[in-house]
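tool=predict chain=A
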Amino acid sequence: MQKLDILKKITQLSDPQKEILNIIKHKCDIQANILYACVYSSKFDGLGNKFSDLDVYAIVNDSNVYLKHFNFVLGKTPLDIEVISNGKINKLIQKNKYDLTDGDLKRLWRLKISFPIYKSLTNVEEILKFDVVKVIFDLSHEKAYELRDDGNKMFKVKNFISAVECFRSSIVSSIKAYGCLCGHVIVKDKWLLYSFVENKGYGNEGLLKRVENLLIFPTVSKENLQKYTSNLASLASDLLFTNELNSN
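tool=predict ok
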Protein backbone atom coordinates (compact mmCIF):
# COMPACT_ATOMS: atom_id res chain seq x y z
CA MET A 1 0.00 0.00 0.00
CA GLN A 2 1.33 3.46 -0.93
CA LYS A 3 2.02 6.00 1.83
CA LEU A 4 -0.80 8.31 0.76
CA ASP A 5 -3.24 5.40 0.79
CA ILE A 6 -2.08 4.51 4.30
CA LEU A 7 -2.68 8.09 5.44
CA LYS A 8 -6.14 8.13 3.89
CA LYS A 9 -7.01 4.88 5.64
CA ILE A 10 -5.71 6.08 9.01
CA THR A 11 -7.43 9.47 8.91
CA GLN A 12 -10.52 8.42 6.92
CA LEU A 13 -10.00 11.56 4.82
CA SER A 14 -9.76 11.91 1.04
CA ASP A 15 -7.14 14.68 1.26
CA PRO A 16 -5.31 14.26 4.60
CA GLN A 17 -2.24 16.20 3.48
CA LYS A 18 -4.34 19.34 2.96
CA GLU A 19 -5.97 19.03 6.37
CA ILE A 20 -2.66 18.45 8.13
CA LEU A 21 -1.02 21.38 6.36
CA ASN A 22 -3.90 23.63 7.42
CA ILE A 23 -3.33 22.63 11.04
CA ILE A 24 0.39 23.42 10.75
CA LYS A 25 -0.27 26.81 9.19
CA HIS A 26 -3.14 27.96 11.39
CA LYS A 27 -2.68 26.29 14.77
CA CYS A 28 1.09 26.06 15.33
CA ASP A 29 1.84 29.76 15.67
CA ILE A 30 4.47 29.70 12.92
CA GLN A 31 6.06 33.08 12.31
CA ALA A 32 8.39 31.99 9.47
CA ASN A 33 7.78 30.57 6.00
CA ILE A 34 7.41 26.81 5.75
CA LEU A 35 10.14 25.22 3.64
CA TYR A 36 9.12 21.59 3.93
CA ALA A 37 6.46 19.55 5.68
CA CYS A 38 5.97 15.80 5.85
CA VAL A 39 4.05 13.09 7.69
CA TYR A 40 5.29 9.80 9.10
CA SER A 41 3.31 6.76 10.24
CA SER A 42 4.92 3.67 11.73
CA LYS A 43 2.59 1.76 9.42
CA PHE A 44 4.82 2.91 6.54
CA ASP A 45 7.33 0.39 7.96
CA GLY A 46 4.76 -2.32 8.60
CA LEU A 47 4.72 -1.45 12.29
CA GLY A 48 2.32 0.46 14.51
CA ASN A 49 -1.21 -0.34 15.65
CA LYS A 50 -4.61 1.31 16.01
CA PHE A 51 -3.28 3.49 18.85
CA SER A 52 -0.33 4.87 16.85
CA ASP A 53 -0.26 8.58 16.12
CA LEU A 54 0.98 10.45 13.07
CA ASP A 55 4.30 12.27 13.36
CA VAL A 56 4.36 15.55 11.45
CA TYR A 57 7.51 17.54 10.72
CA ALA A 58 7.62 21.12 9.43
CA ILE A 59 10.89 22.86 8.61
CA VAL A 60 10.60 26.64 8.69
CA ASN A 61 12.89 29.29 7.23
CA ASP A 62 14.61 30.65 10.32
CA SER A 63 18.33 30.81 11.06
CA ASN A 64 17.65 30.65 14.80
CA VAL A 65 18.00 27.22 16.37
CA TYR A 66 14.77 25.91 17.82
CA LEU A 67 12.34 23.01 17.97
CA LYS A 68 8.70 23.32 19.01
CA HIS A 69 6.18 20.57 19.78
CA PHE A 70 2.41 20.65 19.26
CA ASN A 71 -0.27 18.03 19.74
CA PHE A 72 -3.60 18.03 17.94
CA VAL A 73 -6.22 15.52 16.84
CA LEU A 74 -7.33 15.11 13.25
CA GLY A 75 -10.68 13.34 13.39
CA LYS A 76 -9.76 10.54 15.79
CA THR A 77 -6.07 10.47 14.86
CA PRO A 78 -3.53 12.09 17.23
CA LEU A 79 -0.98 14.34 15.53
CA ASP A 80 2.45 14.87 17.08
CA ILE A 81 3.83 17.94 15.29
CA GLU A 82 7.41 19.20 15.39
CA VAL A 83 8.18 22.62 13.97
CA ILE A 84 11.92 22.81 13.31
CA SER A 85 13.93 25.80 12.16
CA ASN A 86 16.29 25.13 9.28
CA GLY A 87 18.94 26.60 11.58
CA LYS A 88 18.35 23.64 13.91
CA ILE A 89 18.47 21.12 11.07
CA ASN A 90 21.65 22.59 9.60
CA LYS A 91 23.27 22.40 13.02
CA LEU A 92 22.27 18.73 13.33
CA ILE A 93 23.74 17.63 10.01
CA GLN A 94 27.00 19.40 10.83
CA LYS A 95 27.39 17.69 14.19
CA ASN A 96 29.94 15.01 14.93
CA LYS A 97 28.05 11.73 14.74
CA TYR A 98 28.94 10.94 18.35
CA ASP A 99 27.13 14.08 19.49
CA LEU A 100 23.85 13.12 17.80
CA THR A 101 21.18 11.85 20.18
CA ASP A 102 18.69 9.08 19.42
CA GLY A 103 16.09 11.83 19.01
CA ASP A 104 18.29 13.64 16.48
CA LEU A 105 18.74 10.46 14.43
CA LYS A 106 15.04 9.66 14.53
CA ARG A 107 14.21 13.18 13.38
CA LEU A 108 16.70 13.12 10.49
CA TRP A 109 15.56 9.67 9.35
CA ARG A 110 11.88 10.57 9.53
CA LEU A 111 12.46 13.72 7.45
CA LYS A 112 14.07 11.54 4.81
CA ILE A 113 11.39 8.85 4.47
CA SER A 114 8.15 10.59 5.45
CA PHE A 115 5.39 11.45 3.00
CA PRO A 116 5.91 15.08 1.87
CA ILE A 117 2.85 17.31 2.04
CA TYR A 118 4.54 20.61 1.21
CA LYS A 119 7.81 21.74 -0.35
CA SER A 120 8.66 25.31 -1.29
CA LEU A 121 11.03 26.31 -4.06
CA THR A 122 13.75 26.79 -1.46
CA ASN A 123 16.37 24.07 -1.73
CA VAL A 124 16.14 21.53 1.11
CA GLU A 125 17.94 18.76 -0.76
CA GLU A 126 21.07 19.14 1.39
CA ILE A 127 19.05 18.06 4.42
CA LEU A 128 17.35 15.16 2.67
CA LYS A 129 20.64 13.87 1.20
CA PHE A 130 22.32 13.58 4.60
CA ASP A 131 23.35 9.91 4.97
CA VAL A 132 21.66 9.23 8.29
CA VAL A 133 21.50 5.48 7.58
CA LYS A 134 25.29 5.21 7.60
CA VAL A 135 25.44 7.15 10.85
CA ILE A 136 22.86 4.86 12.49
CA PHE A 137 24.74 1.80 11.23
CA ASP A 138 28.12 3.06 12.45
CA LEU A 139 26.88 4.01 15.92
CA SER A 140 24.89 0.79 16.39
CA HIS A 141 27.76 -1.39 15.17
CA GLU A 142 30.29 0.33 17.43
CA LYS A 143 27.93 0.09 20.41
CA ALA A 144 27.46 -3.62 19.73
CA TYR A 145 31.23 -4.15 19.80
CA GLU A 146 31.62 -2.30 23.09
CA LEU A 147 28.80 -4.25 24.73
CA ARG A 148 30.12 -7.57 23.42
CA ASP A 149 33.57 -6.79 24.84
CA ASP A 150 32.05 -5.78 28.19
CA GLY A 151 30.11 -9.03 28.19
CA ASN A 152 33.28 -11.04 27.59
CA LYS A 153 34.95 -9.35 30.57
CA MET A 154 31.98 -10.13 32.80
CA PHE A 155 31.91 -13.73 31.59
CA LYS A 156 35.59 -14.23 32.44
CA VAL A 157 34.98 -13.27 36.07
CA LYS A 158 31.84 -15.44 36.16
CA ASN A 159 29.46 -12.49 36.54
CA PHE A 160 26.96 -14.18 34.26
CA ILE A 161 24.03 -11.91 35.11
CA SER A 162 25.86 -8.78 33.93
CA ALA A 163 27.29 -10.72 30.98
CA VAL A 164 23.78 -11.70 29.87
CA GLU A 165 22.71 -8.06 29.98
CA CYS A 166 25.72 -6.96 27.91
CA PHE A 167 25.37 -9.71 25.31
CA ARG A 168 21.62 -9.20 24.89
CA SER A 169 22.12 -5.47 24.41
CA SER A 170 24.96 -6.13 21.96
CA ILE A 171 22.73 -8.45 19.92
CA VAL A 172 19.92 -5.87 19.78
CA SER A 173 22.37 -3.16 18.65
CA SER A 174 23.71 -5.49 15.97
CA ILE A 175 20.18 -6.21 14.76
CA LYS A 176 19.66 -2.46 14.46
CA ALA A 177 22.85 -2.20 12.38
CA TYR A 178 21.93 -5.27 10.31
CA GLY A 179 18.55 -3.71 9.52
CA CYS A 180 20.34 -0.67 8.07
CA LEU A 181 22.13 -2.98 5.64
CA CYS A 182 18.92 -4.76 4.69
CA GLY A 183 16.63 -1.79 4.10
CA HIS A 184 14.90 -1.99 7.49
CA VAL A 185 15.99 1.12 9.37
CA ILE A 186 14.31 1.02 12.78
CA VAL A 187 14.94 4.07 14.95
CA LYS A 188 12.79 3.05 17.92
CA ASP A 189 14.25 0.19 19.93
CA LYS A 190 10.82 -1.14 20.91
CA TRP A 191 10.30 -2.26 17.29
CA LEU A 192 13.73 -3.82 16.63
CA LEU A 193 13.06 -7.45 17.54
CA TYR A 194 9.50 -7.32 16.22
CA SER A 195 10.67 -6.07 12.83
CA PHE A 196 13.48 -8.63 12.70
CA VAL A 197 11.12 -11.52 13.44
CA GLU A 198 8.24 -10.32 11.23
CA ASN A 199 10.66 -9.90 8.31
CA LYS A 200 12.13 -13.41 8.70
CA GLY A 201 15.43 -12.24 10.12
CA TYR A 202 15.91 -9.96 7.09
CA GLY A 203 16.53 -13.06 5.00
CA ASN A 204 18.79 -14.88 7.45
CA GLU A 205 16.77 -17.76 8.90
CA GLY A 206 19.73 -19.13 10.84
CA LEU A 207 20.15 -15.90 12.78
CA LEU A 208 16.39 -15.62 13.20
CA LYS A 209 16.14 -19.01 14.93
CA ARG A 210 19.00 -18.20 17.26
CA VAL A 211 17.54 -14.80 18.16
CA GLU A 212 14.14 -16.37 18.85
CA ASN A 213 15.66 -19.12 20.99
CA LEU A 214 17.96 -16.88 22.99
CA LEU A 215 16.16 -13.53 23.24
CA ILE A 216 12.45 -14.07 22.68
CA PHE A 217 11.70 -17.59 23.93
CA PRO A 218 14.72 -18.39 26.12
CA THR A 219 14.85 -21.32 28.48
CA VAL A 220 17.22 -20.22 31.21
CA SER A 221 17.72 -21.13 34.84
CA LYS A 222 20.49 -20.98 37.44
CA GLU A 223 21.60 -24.42 36.32
CA ASN A 224 22.14 -23.52 32.65
CA LEU A 225 23.00 -19.82 33.07
CA GLN A 226 26.64 -20.26 32.10
CA LYS A 227 25.76 -22.21 28.96
CA TYR A 228 23.04 -19.72 28.05
CA THR A 229 25.48 -16.84 28.49
CA SER A 230 28.03 -18.61 26.31
CA ASN A 231 25.43 -19.04 23.56
CA LEU A 232 24.57 -15.34 23.77
CA ALA A 233 28.25 -14.47 23.44
CA SER A 234 28.52 -16.63 20.34
CA LEU A 235 25.47 -15.01 18.73
CA ALA A 236 26.73 -11.51 19.59
CA SER A 237 30.08 -12.24 17.88
CA ASP A 238 28.43 -13.85 14.84
CA LEU A 239 26.16 -10.85 14.32
CA LEU A 240 29.14 -8.50 14.51
CA PHE A 241 30.95 -10.62 11.93
CA THR A 242 27.87 -10.66 9.68
CA ASN A 243 27.62 -6.87 9.78
CA GLU A 244 31.33 -6.49 9.06
CA LEU A 245 31.04 -8.85 6.12
CA ASN A 246 28.01 -7.17 4.61
CA SER A 247 29.13 -3.56 5.13
CA ASN A 248 32.34 -3.94 3.10
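The chain has a mean pLDDT of 92. The chain has two domains: 3-128, 132-247.
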